[in-house]
Batch of 3 targets.
Target 1
Amino acid sequence: MRVKEAVNYGLDGELAEILTARGVMGFNAVQSTAVKLGVFRGRNVMICSPSASGKSLLGEIACINSALSGGKAAYIVPLKSVAYEKYDDMVEICRTRSLRIVMSTGDFYRFPSDILDADVMILTYEKFDSMTRQIPAVLDMLRTVVIDEVHMLSDPERGPRLEGILTRLRLRARKNDIQMIPLSASIGNPHEIASWLNCALIESHARMVPLEISITVTRQKNAFIKEFLRERCSEEGQVLVFVARRRDAESLAEKLGEILKDHVDDEVGMRIRKILDNATGGDRSSLARRAFRVAPSGVCFHHAGLSLNLRRAIELAFRKRLLKVLVCTTTLSAGINMPARYVILRDLVVVRRTPDGMEYRRLGANTIFQIVGRAGRPGFDSSGHAYILVYTDQERELLRSVLFRDGRQTPRYENVESQLENGDLMEELLLVAIYDSEGATIDDLVEFLRSTLWGRKRPAIEISRKILLTGKTRFLDWDESHEISGEVVITKADGRRIEGIVNGRMCTISRNGAWCECSEFSKMRRTTPCRHLVGLAMYVAENLRDRIGIVLDGLGMGSALDFLMRGGLVKQIEDADITAFEVTRFGELVIKLYLRPRTAVAMHALSSRFSGDVYDFIRRFCGFLSEEGRRVPPQLHAALLEVYEGRISVEEIPVRFEIPPGDFEELIDYIRWSLHALRAISELCGYLNTSHLAGELLEVLSGGSGRD
């Protein structure tokens, strides 16, 4: 279908002319199907097709077209880097038609002053979620929402919040007629997701650029990569190499640079240096210096430890075809349009940094297809080639059976499953549901959860068990055989677990369950608490009241609504004819601060513990960050003190304390957000000293003056 023909299906005529002038002459098969289904006339359309099939471009056009008809449009993405790219793609056309476009990816409590006046918004999932809580009127203005990478529903960390976004949009769409356009390259159950979102489904496995995937057996993976590059030094096609660890990306890039440096002329090297210089300014970190040394050879590395500006500069140099090879981690696997003819997947695991160290996890089929799909980009290459490296023939055959349905390389994608039951985001979703309803009964909450992907196939009784009040805030009716003799010694008690020795037996209660080393617990098959766990629970109930929620959750005695009531976020409406609930002032503040309820309750407890000593405040605050699951460098306490005392600036921390700039950027954003929230909660609860300390440190970290 030619672009001008799409005017008959709802495309704005002037927009069609602009697209044609920019070289978009026609729509491919996937895009044409969406146009005929009514994507430019407000119909919900879900597109599941491979990378580089044109679905993102169609989503961008749909946003602009919707804004031209008078509605507000949002394009929401999982990553900041993708948001920057979408903004760059759309800004010129928007300005040509006098549309106001805004991008916002940063603080969850700050928004551009003109966001309500914007016609097109480019936002991360979390920023969109936060905005609709703080400025609910936006939902009444929205006409179109494009959801990029909707398969992120399966992500354990970000999936539940995305599911909450989509559930609220679904319910709001019934009365506001909001159009949803979910996009994905890898979903094994697209019909189920499309049905849930009430979308017409377009599913295609066809690629504009053919892709050949080879599973290659080699005992020496780096040697294979080096030889591969030697054979193709003189070719124009570029190469993306994916590895598991950051340090592997750096070292392999340096080794490949030695091979390629004689094939890159000085002018190209100077252009690469200029791009990196212009973008990074005064980045003096060891990572930046290492990247500057290797990049002029035509090879560089890319991972989340680099600063955002440096990552963007490296991506730009690669798009301009100045960099021949990019060695990267999975941070580059999705969303960003990177022109590569070849992709080599060296490692089949991903490394995730946790507070307890490094966690290795095997890549799933969907992630592998996201990675290999980077090969063969329209307008750059006529073909794409991907090489997945394995050590043995057995590993190759096993991987082939996991990835493909037949010998023709038809992808076997994994199903997208709800992650709402994992973690504590069920409580957050219920809190927002109660806030939106301004008085919700149990039946209302059950019906709301039945609208989620998690709840659509579950009976009402099972959903009720998740949210009903248990009333068990004390430990009663224990059998006399559970009488405890001997003392209880607490060995660890933080926001996630309680460990202790009860009558000589080691016990642990965490939010995920309980354990005791005694034979009694083993014989019970861990279905009921033993006498030692009961003793630990009773001790906590009497002596560590602020940790009681961990015990209730760990022993299966709590529920989502029970926690919200105990935490002071929700209360029962007085004088109501039926049992209904509403959020408290504290609960409303938590929603607008974009905090998880458990984090907010922990902040409330933290607020009451300070006497006025800033050194103690910073020490306890760093401990809180660690308890909340953040990976806190051991030198952070000293770094914050030096900034507070005016001895160094915030920008000097990564170099002074050798913290990777990318990690520090993410961490300092979280610290500022946490301090803002802690200040607000402390002020609401009357802990003015804590509010003052949090505000003072926030001002310093946000560019204010340090202490003399």
Note: The first helix runs from residue 13 to 21.
Target 2
Amino acid sequence: MLNDIEIAQQAKMKKISAIAKDRLGIPEDELEAFGHYKAKISLPYLHTLKEKKDGKLILVTAISPTPAGEGKTTTTVGLGDALNLIGKKTMICLREPSLGPVFGMKGGAAGGGFAQIVPMEDINLHFTGDFSAIALAHNLLAAMLDNHIHHGNALKINLKSIQWKRVVDMNDRALRKITVGLSDSKNGFPRESGFDIIAASEIMAIFCLATSMEDLKKRLGQVVVAYTEDEKPVLAKDLKAHGAMTVLLKNALAPNLVQTLENNPAFVHGGPFANIAHGCNSVIATKAALKLADYVVTEAGFGADLGAEKFIDIKCRKAGLKPSATVIVATIRAIKYHGGAELTELTTENINALDKGLVNLERHVENITKIHSLPCVVAINKFTSDTPAEIELITQRMKKLNVKIVLASHWAEGGKGAVELAKTVVEICDLTTPALQFAYEDKDTLMEKINKIAKKIYRAKEVTADDTILAQIKNLQDKGYGHYPICVAKTQSSFSTDPKLRGAPTDHIISIREIRLAAGAEFVVMLCGGIMTMPGLSKVPSAEKIDYVDGKVIGLL
């Protein structure tokens, strides 16, 4: 069996200009091509589409991730191909992969098997340079902040209050805490700082939530980098940095157009993680796709407790989006893992483990259908080891929740393996009018918001924080940031903050460890448990297997 990169390297791609013109009606003059197979769509052209009717939005999410894998991106691609196969004009909207996971755990993030986006190597590596532009804009602000201090600190910035770190697109735990400002001369101002991964940068969040160049510049100007000695916020516009930052991002803000293995159009734009950021592709790409297609399939990162919650409570709230259908992705192997089975046992029938593990899927379904009031279908990525008894158990458990399950084989068969899933999604879109409920209201206080997410979505008993954190939350509330949504940063592996707690733990405690104001992105980040905004590499990182041999990239999976 060919692996992912071998399948991608044999793809018969069409020129991106033909995809744009023939499938989407976009003139070639409105493209900025990056070679033959990827291009950016001009923002002025997208502005001309604003009066067109929107298509239907389909959100793909998943159960809590496991080492066995679930295949959420693969399902997004397979479903998009299947919808096109049954005659529905469909676009896919995905995030751009970060080099951190590509060289760390994942080894690639462009789908898998015969449900991939291509050119896979380009997308997984440098692509069109968006991440580089975001890093440069972020680090320019850091450099201008330190430069301002070096040249006299006219704004009277309290050095102990500086919260703007630097970023790099790599998993590098050695950079979590560093000392900057060391100097042999009297002009040095040593202080503790650190690096985050680009996916956790507020500039990434701003990039993905901005609706135009004007909105981008305004949001960049609002970024809070530090506080003065009398506790007033110091903004990027106070440092006169936001104009140059906008210039660095002006080309990147246009969405990237690529294609699937079956030559269907896909936007791949922006890339915040869902465990440490808000986990959704750009608003600009999503809104553009809704004007260009009748159906748009997008994904939210990790499990529905993280990605889908933030997609709804941050992205939909801010951009006025409303999904017509939701797909929750699972595998029988992953469900058995949540039921206590070990990785070596997942291909053996285990009704007991499956029965116990189904509580994870059930909770995600309940959250989507009851708390967020969205219709959903469960997509089971089928493996040859799945048995009729296991499939029947899942079917019966989902029937009790009035939710249909569909077995899909798009990984092995491409779009035709997800035709039944596509027909089910169309049926949901045509027959239902989703109400879409948020987990909390704008008027709720910041503490009320985190408590509602913790108790409604995670089923926690309580939220705790030390006096310093509680004072910071009160200060943000008092300073007028209380109406902002919150972005919870926690482990993706569990409903709790303990990645070892599988299944659907209840009555656990959510402990807030750190608070970060993202005034440009217009949300407040609450870091819970041991989550880090700079990941580390695993003991055997994927980078050890990635190589260039005989003119070809290998190991990029």
Note: DSSP finds 19 helices and 24 strands in the chain.
Target 3
Amino acid sequence: MGVVVVTSSRTAEDIREVTSNITVIDEETLENSAAITLEEILSESGFTVTKNPGSLGTVTVRGFSTDSHGLDLGSHVLILLNGRRLGTGNVSMISLANVERVEVIRGPAATQYGAAAMGGVVNVITKKGIGLPFGASLEAGVGSFSANKEKARFIGSYRNFDFAVGLSHAKYGSYKIGGGGTFNNTAFENYAGSGEFGYAFLDSHRVALSFNFFDSPQSGSPGSYSANGVQSSNWTRKYNYSLGVDYNGATRDEKISWLVRYNVGKDFRGYHYPSGSQEYGWNIVDAQTGQAQVTYAGNFWDLTGGFDYLNYDISQSASFNTTPNSVYRDQAFFALGKLRFFDDRLILSAGARRDYFSFKPEEGNGSTNKRNLSPSLGIAYLPWPFMKIRAHYSKGFAMPTPIQLVADYTNAAGTHFQGDPNLQPEKSDSYEVGMDLMGRHSMASLSYFWTKSKNFIESTRPSATERLYRNMDVAYRSGLELSFGLDIGGLLGRDFVLKPTFALTHMFVFKTRLTPTANFDKIADIEDNVMSVGLLYKYDPIGFAASLNISRHSKNYNPNGSKDRDAYGVVSLNARKRIWDFADKGELSAVLEAQNFTDELYRTTSGSSYYYMPGRSVTVSLRYDY
């Protein structure tokens, strides 16, 4: 109770008033996890995460995924940093070094954020130094696979100024897969960080400069383990950065508040293939985004309205040759409202968004202009302060990507990719009902969801050497979400934390068909069960904390219903013990992390590429906190 979230309504609200299912990965969970990237913490929290060597990962929510190559244009789950687009759907490229919490909207959020949010939104909220004294955290460690990693965080304020900065570095050699066997050319090195510098004035006004970056200068691209060594000299280069400026203001009584922000960024993907016909290729997305919104917060009703702007300038090397250089734009107007009745026990929410899209390649055909209206409606009823019953309806949509519209190229394997400039946007209708129990030391949530998608864009294979993009007639997805958490120590009134957690997503239906008379096929790369079990223990008087996490993923399927990938489970451990207390000068702790503790042989990817994940690894670190 009392948890404040910002993603669902684009402004701060009590989680009890949210009418859709939202998951919050809080600061305590982040601090006591072995995860160092968004990819890893989502996997530990009961989401399907597909990982590839070379810092490439996607997340799936309700059967919808981010783009497999990182671009948010092709995503059905939108990745945000403090409410801003990063131009990427690659969850491996976001460090947790400066993150306060992660909010995940399960289900469409097109009304709030537009295209690419058909399946949900993952919003990473970074730390802020407003009103805090100076603090710092430094950590360095070594481990398996010739690993070394460092992390630093600085936070605080001075008079009207505040700051919060987190930086991280990780370097790993080629790893061994579960059960032994070195997976050659899987070494990588990453640099990442984020930060915000703010200045407050006139009581309720603040301007802030923010930055975020990720750089992987050279990551091995090994190919399938079954052909290990054949492509051992291939590598990739990836980086993503963004710079932004925000202005937040409010009236003296804070009934009316506003936000104006502007952001620029770049997402770069480079590929080096010395053994093939394309020695080096690259793709760049230069992004500009802007937001403006005004909120009225009354006693009985709230209203937020605003404008969003997005411009993606896409370019690539001649050798890359997947789609021509092009410009993709979106301008949108939105309104989100909420009504409260019966002493805030009945909440009604509604919203609508109008998007105006344009896509224009520099050469050739394929220019398109589209409009889309995305409404939503929700209700929440609290018969008691600890119980919420909710229902939600919303429309989602996804625009065809440049590759899907105008691709015309043959890859190194001899497959010809052909786009279709007449592709229609995907559109969905989603319904959910659920119940949440919220206590001081416990929480539980149960949700059922059902989604029907029209014009679902699928990559089809008319022959072994052809791949075409087509609008499918219809696609259905439905499932059940269950989560539970309990702090036994708090419940008993003790000074320790003992918190078991559980999360499960079960998919009842995930099917699609090409025409109204065709048979239904399964939608590929969807697991019918994803489960996460966690246990956290903390005892602050001796400076000890330990966590255990077990994630279990069922097999997934080919379109014909046959098994494509085996089920697997991964166990991770994390422990921290204070070894020296410097009183008012801080404290020194030892940290032990063990990933894939049972040495499971597993892969998260489907198809013929056997990208096995690392086997058991152990990292030992020293951490200084002030």
Note: The chain has one domain: 4-166+176-214+227-380+387-604+614-625.
